[in-house]
Amino acid sequence: MENLKETLASLKRGKVRPKACPRCGSVDVSVQTMTGYISQPTYVCNSCGFQGNIFLEIEKEKEIEK
């Protein structure tokens, strides 16, 4: 439950974490927002070409230690 509170608090504060490709691990990721108004944005890895709606978010080491 504490993790959920921390996650919601970080979303409220507007922390933006870089996305990483689940296939190759690259952070060279772009977003296609014109996929529709109702659907989620599609992320595209510029290194390997992987496309998907869910990409990993990278946390800084200081955030992990807390």
General description of the model:
- It comes from Thermoproteota archaeon.
- This is Transposase zinc-ribbon domain-containing protein.
- This protein is of the alpha+beta class.
- The protein has one domain.
- The protein is 26% helix and 21% strand.
- The chain has two helices and five strands; from the N terminus they run αβββββα.
- It has helices at residues 2-13, 61-65, and strands spanning 19-20, 29-32, 42-45, 51-52, 56-57.
- The strands form two sheets. Strands 2-3-4 form a three-stranded antiparallel beta sheet, with no helix packed on it.
- The longest helix has 12 residues, at 2-13.
- The radius of gyration is 14 Å and the shape is globular.
How is this fold's topology laid out?
Layout: H1 2-13, E1 19-20, E2 29-32, E3 42-45, E4 51-52, E5 56-57, H2 61-65
How does the overall form come out from the CA principal axes? Answer: globular
Q: Please state the structural category.
A: alpha+beta
Taken together, the total number of domains comes to 1
Q: Uncertain spans, ≥5 residues at pLDDT below 50?
A: none
Protein name: Transposase zinc-ribbon domain-containing protein
